[in-house]
Write a structure and sequence with these properties.
Distance between the termini: 54 Å
Radius of gyration: 28 Å
Number of strands: 39
Shape: globular
Number of helices: 37
Strand content: 15-25%
Length: about 1050
């Protein structure tokens, strides 16, 4: 087949439009912030003008310095056409914004918008995108090119699937067309579940199409990250092997790079097939990811799919090899060839040299199933993980153990000491988030055939796991205490990646004692460099990982230096917002002349790009691993307040070891976390706060509840994201919630606070330099108290908080910042009720809202905080008063309920959102409407609204109903709410509740009869009655409002949309 060459290179100085991926959602995470940042930097350095559009304010890519024009706007074709008309780009790069960016680019091309405005697609042509993304066209292209693919049929209805299943057989795999992260995927094992799986797959596909495919359950899965340029140069960047077999989405699988169990002949076969695939799809420039299935016994190879864009695996491959795929893809798109682009790490080789690595990389997914206890926890073809961790070691066992402790789930390694249920062996056949640890619990010392059969793990991986367990039992547990372990024992343990805490548990010693023993015996780590060339050429970029060999490549400098601790893997409650802060700290301190040292283990982030900090240590964020780096580097300071709760939890141990913690003193951090000490401080400052108490038993809890009065907020100590937080209204629910809270944090007492109902919540981000406290932003929650701040929409500036209350908030914030000796960032949460301002909590660290406040105010507050920690005063920085805000900025949460059918989407005190979007406009209504549109649930401007509210809300619902009626909405309500509305003279129809049968409200949602739902249940019976309706609303993308304050905001938004169309403006124009 003759190669197809790209059109002529893009002219220098061209304007290029980049579409981002939008909010962080399951299947499309912060790896696209990393790829977008790389593309922006590369294109601007090549002399082009960049216009960036993304709806996610938490990203580095949406900082105004990253592009020439930055639009934080909803990602819709209509909005993008407005921006194209304003900016007149010459080209659109569709390949660095995930599936969202790719789908929108196709929509703009097919609707002739690009043709109308003379915009050229670069990096991937429309035909190539159509062929790769349309499963039918991809299958036809592969068969025409002689590439083997699984036997399959396309279906568009349940009837079609039932007619064709006989040809495929059970089990059968369903894949939705044009979705991300395996969305809509499922396995039908029998005729009984075929209907449900097909229905789900068709509903999730934006074109109502699914692929009914031969099941490859149990086959081995491999990926190749490849690149091609316009001269038909081709390189394999990285091979990736999935430890989990086919049937588990690659995003939910343990993966290893490079592939470990392929022979060279097998690898070359995959490599040759990959090149054929790229030519057949006509990918002319850029990076692609190709997935293969290999039969474990016969070696039969099938091509599963390919992505003609930068993918989730691209970020992993980039970090695993040091080869910046997104940067190179952007340069190839504008006309460079691989041999014209220098390798940044070696500085002497071009990127046409394929990377070669002499180490092993392991990626482990991070799930948050504990946030969704009602969900099916089995892993399958639909991705459910919310983040991932990567570890580098000389061997697979070393990298595996480092990855496990990097997960930050309370398990320090692959060990039989990890807590596991007695049914672990029986549960192995069902892949879950716990399966790796179940294998550790049941893997025998002799023949592991049963484990191999149950998991379909390759025998080589199982043998490596056995090696770890044998060493633990034969050497560590057989030793006569810690003194029985000699240097060679400890060195072997560390070369296997075994943590000091695991060694200590085996010999009944503390982690500190093991660390001390190791150092006395001279067993300390060395650090090797990631160099892309297996040490054939010198590496000029200090991108480092630890191991226990003889030679050390770290070569620390004698410069003034600062260590910045990242947040580790993304999880609900600790996400990209904290990486944003870390990156700003690196930039700020470098400008002040410090050598910046980044420590993190998340491959998806900008902070772990090799050129963000001066030195990058890709290491787990544990006390052992961080202290090893501090011992080597001897920094002037260590910054813990930007990475979320993970580095905060390490602070006591680091402080005890003598690490120089910069910023707020460790004792102040502990004071804010310790409810007893914090309560005493509030009393001393005479600041109002809800009554509270702590409990270690049910008896204690009931006594606190009796004293403060129900309802009470129950929460564990030292957790993030509102983990296991619940509102108890009586003794029965208190007992249930107490068990959950104790299980979530067994080492600390459970906190029980008086819950202030119907209060207005306010979040404040502030900067302090130990002497002066300046508020950066005041945000009003749109939902009432009781909804976690991470799940509540919020608006800046507050639109319904009086100046009187704002003055109290300002006073309390300043006094708390000074009393806690805050140096850097702090976040204070307030509740306002009956003219009383209560302090709920204080976090003397970066908060999730820092990027949002920075975008709204135009002030880089994380950068300023880093400078403050480096001894700059707020006076020096010119930050002496709260910034003014032009217009309104609304932050809205994006929730993952569609991934978890059966989970009630009702919001509460435990955070469950994965990401956020922002809307900004001159009026609050337009800003709120933009935020809803960006979140994927645009407000209707006409249609039918269903009202079903509790008795306490019936009075307030009348005004909302009246406003909707005036805007010509048809009103429907359940019987009790309808009766109340009728009394006011408003026309309202009656809708049946689910338990009333017939054509009830859930069926009305499914049949498209409702355009907006306002539902405020109260009490367990009411929750259960309306649960099916709420679940249906989520599945069918019907706006669902579960608080009256959110409903009133929606009315404001609808009124604004009906009055005027939405306008767009770049951040640069907004700030000017």
């Amino acid at each position: 087949m003759s190669p197809t060459l790209n059109p002529k290179p893009l002219a220098p100085g061209s304007t290029i439009l980049i579409i981002g991926s939008g909010p962080i959602v399951i299947g499309q995470g912060c790896e696209f912030d990393y790829s977008g940042v790389q593309a922006c930097k590369a294109l601007r350095s090549a002399g082009h003008r960049v216009v960036l559009v993304n709806s996610n304010p938490a990203t580095i890519m949406t900082d105004p310095q990253m592009a020439d024009a930055t639009y934080v706007e909803p990602l819709t074709a209509e909005i993008l056409e407005q921006i194209i008309a304003i900016e007149r780009p010459d080209a659109l790069l569709p390949t660095v914004g995930g599936q969202t960016g790719l789908n929108l680019s196709v929509e703009l091309a097919e609707s002739k918008v690009l043709e109308k405005h003379a915009v050229q697609l670069i990096g991937a042509q429309l035909d190539a995108i159509r062929t790769a993304e349309n499963r039918y066209k991809f299958k036809e292209a592969m068969l025409a090119a002689g590439v083997p693919v699984p036997h399959s049929h396309f279906v568009h209805s349940i009837d079609e699937a039932q007619a064709l299943i006989g040809d495929i057989g059970y089990p059968a795999l369903l894949r939705s067309s044009f979705t991300l992260g395996g969305g809509g995927g499922g396995v039908a094992h029998s005729a009984q579940d075929l209907v449900a799986v097909v229905e789900h797959s068709l509903r999730e596909s934006p074109v109502g199409e699914a692929l009914l495919e031969r099941s490859l359950l149990g086959w081995k899965e491999y990926e190749l990250e490849v690149m091609r340029d316009r001269a038909d140069n081709f390189v394999v960047v990285c091979s990736i092997e999935n430890v989990d077999p086919m049937g588990v989405h690659t995003g939910d699988s343990i993966t290893v790079a490079p592939a470990q169990t392929l022979s060279d002949r097998e690898y070359q076969q995959l490599r040759d097939l990959a090149r054929v695939v790229l030519r057949a799809v006509r990918v002319e420039t850029g990076g692609s990811n190709i997935q293969f299935a290999v039969h474990p016994r016969t070696g039969e190879v099938l091509v599963i799919e390919m992505n003609p864009r930068v993918s989730r695996s691209s970020a992993l491959a980039s970090k695993a090899t040091g080869f910046p795929i997104a940067k190179i893809a952007a340069l190839l798109a504008v006309g460079y060839t691989l041999d014209q682009i220098p390798n940044d790490i070696t500085r002497v080789t071009p990127v046409s040299f394929e990377p070669s690595i002499d180490y092993t990389v392991v990626k482990l997914p991070r799930w948050n199933f504990e946030k969704f206890p009602e969900a099916d926890h089995a892993l399958g073809p639909q991705m459910n993980s919310v983040g991932e961790v990567m570890a580098i070691g000389r061997t697979f066992p070393e990298a595996l153990n480092k990855a496990i402790r990097g997960l930050d789930v309370g398990i320090a390694g692959f060990s039989r000491s990890a807590p596991m249920s007695e049914e672990a062996a029986a549960e192995l056949r069902v892949p879950t988030a716990q399966r790796l640890f179940q294998v550790a619990a049941v893997l025998p010392d002799d023949l592991p055939d049963e484990v191999i059969a149950a998991t379909s793990f390759d025998p080589w991986f199982v043998a490596q796991m056995q090696k770890l367990l044998r060493f633990e039992s034969d050497t560590l547990r057989a030793a006569t205490g810690l003194e029985g372990l000699e240097a060679h024992h400890l060195r072997t343990a560390k070369r296997l990646g075994i943590a000091d805490s695991v060694i200590g548990k085996a010999v009944d010693a503390t982690e500190n004692a093991v660390r001390k023993r190791r150092k006395e015996l001279g067993v300390t780590p060395v650090f090797y460099r990631v160099d892309t060339c297996a040490a054939e050429f010198e590496a000029h970029t200090p991108y480092l990982y630890s191991t226990y060999e003889a030679h050390d490549e770290a070569t620390p400098t004698q410069q003034r230096k600062v260590v910045i601790l990242g947040g580790g893997p993304n999880r609900i409650g600790q996400g990209i917002e904290f990486d944003y802060c870390c990156v700003h700290a690196c930039w700020a301190l470098r400008e002040l002349g410090y050598e910046t040292i980044m420590v993190n283990c998340n491959p998806e982030t900008v902070s772990t790009d090799y050129d963000t900090a001066d030195r990058l240590y890709f290491e787990p964020l544990t006390l052992e691993d961080v202290l090893n780096i501090i011992d080597l580097e001897q920094p002037e300071g260590v910054i813990v307040q930007f990475g979320g709760q993970t580095p905060i939890n390490l602070t006591p141990g680091m402080s005890a070891a003598g690490a120089p913690i910069w910023g707020t003193p460790p004792d102040s951090i502990d004071l804010a976390e310790d409810r007893e000490r914090f309560g005493a401080l509030l009393r001393k400052l005479n600041i109002e706060h809800p009554q509270w108490g702590t409990a270690t038993s049910l008896r204690d809890a009931r006594a606190v509840a009796a004293r403060v009065g129900y309802p009470v907020l129950v929460r564990p100590s030292y957790v993030l994201g509102g983990r296991a937080m619940e509102i108890a209204y009586n003794d029965q629910s208190l007992e249930r919630f107490l068990k959950r809270a104790t299980a979530a944090a067994p080492e600390g007492p459970v906190l029980i606070d008086k819950f202030i109902e119907n209060a207005v919540e306010v979040d404040v981000d502030a900067l302090a330099d130990s002497k002066r406290v300046v508020i950066a932003g005041v945000m009003q929650h749109i939902e009432e108290a009781g909804i976690h701040s991470g799940d509540s929409a919020c608006v800046l500036p507050p639109y319904k908080v009086s100046q009187y209350h704002l003055s109290i908030i300002r006073d309390h914030t300043e006094r708390l910042g000074k009393a806690l000796k805050v140096c850097g960032l702090m976040n204070v949460q307030f509740a306002i009720k009956n003219d009383v301002v209560y302090v709920i909590e204080v976090n003397p660290r970066a908060s999730r809202t820092v990027p949002f406040v920075s975008k709204a105010t135009g002030k880089p507050i994380a950068r300023l905080a880093a400078q403050v920690m480096a001894s700059k005063s707020l006076d020096d920085l010119g930050f002496t008063e709260m910034p003014s805000v032009d217009g309104f900025f609304v932050k809205e949460a994006v929730l993952p309920f569609k991934r978890f059918p059966g989970v009630d989407p009702l919001l509460g005190p435990e955070m469950r959102s994965t990401g956020e979007v922002m809307g900004h406009a001159a009026q609050f209504g337009h800003a709120f409407a933009k935020a809803q549109m960006a979140a994927g649930v645009p407000l209707p401007i006409s249609g039918t609204v269903l009202l079903t509210v509790n008795d306490f809300d019936k009075g307030a619902i009348l005004e909302i109903a009246r406003d909707l009626h005036r805007m010509d909405f048809k009103l429907l309500a359940t019987s009790g709410t309808a009766e109340w509305i009728k009394r006011s003279g408003l026309p309202v129809g009656v809708a049946r509740k689910v338990d009333e049968g017939g054509h009830h409200i859930a069926k009305m949602v499914s049949s498209g009869e409702l355009d907006l739902i306002i539902n405020t249940p109260l009490g367990q019976i009411a929750y259960d009655d309306s649960r099916a309706m709420r679940a249906a609303a989520v599945l069918h993308d019907i706006p669902l409002l579960t608080t009256l304050s959110a409903a009133q905001a929606a009315v404001n938004g609808i009124r604004a949309l009906r009055a005027n169309s939405l306008q767009v403006r770049s951040l640069q124009q907004h700030y000017s």
